[in-house]
């Protein structure tokens, strides 16, 4: 296996392991302060500051303001989606638990990814086939086994 692929897999797993902790930390911040909206804002502020420091440290080039202003508005929706993700994690982890929240998010990501791939949104289409649907159903079953909504 390619070393870069292996390193990418390990990094993805480590980042994935940190996401439930992020939600728990943000929920605790919300409980100790003014609530989930403030905690989500604080999380984004700290993250923005950290990325700003990385930009400065790596001397990453900035596009000219004219180019930024010419971009279509929809390209900035990623930040909005990220804010919704952080807010929902902050709000829901105390109610659902970390494992249930992450399982449901992973299932949502799987379903959304299959739809995006199939429709070719912002990329070339990759049609959904029976094997990919089976994989998504296994993720769904796994999420249901962790969440166990029938016991609530």
What does this structure look like?
The protein is mostly helical. It has two domains: 1-96, no CATH class; 98-152. 78% of the residues lie in helices and 0% in strands. It is built from six helices and no strands. The protein has helices at 3-32, 36-58, 65-70, 77-96, 98-119, 130-147. It is globular and about 50 Å long. The model has no long low-confidence stretch (mean pLDDT 94). InterPro entries: YdcZ. This is DMT family transporter. It comes from Luteimonas deserti. Pfam families: DMT_YdcZ. One of its GO terms (cellular component) is plasma membrane.
Give a short summary of the structure.
It is built from six helices and no strands. The chain has 152 residues and is mostly helical.
Features:
6 helices, transmembrane helix, globular, membrane, 2 domains, single chain, mainly alpha, transmembrane, YdcZ, DMT family transporter, 152 residues
List the helices and strands and how they pair.
Elements: H1 3-32, H2 36-58, H3 65-70, H4 77-96, H5 98-119, H6 130-147
Helix pairs in contact: 1-2, 1-4, 1-5, 2-4, 4-5, 5-6
**What is the molecular shape?**
globular
Number of E-type strands: 0
Global structural class: mainly alpha
Give the helices and strands as they follow along the chain.
Answer: HHHHHH
Distance between the termini: 44 Å
Query: Total number of helical segments?
Result: 6
Provide mean pLDDT, rounded: 94
Query: What's the Cα radius of gyration?
Result: 19 Å
| Secondary structure: helix percent | over 70%
Main sheet attributes: strand count, strand direction, barrel closure = none
Low-pLDDT parts are: none
The proportion of residues in beta strands is: under 5%
Q: Domain count, please report it.
A: 2
Protein name: DMT family transporter
InterPro entries: YdcZ
Organism: Luteimonas deserti
Transmembrane segments: 34-56, 68-92, 98-121, 133-151
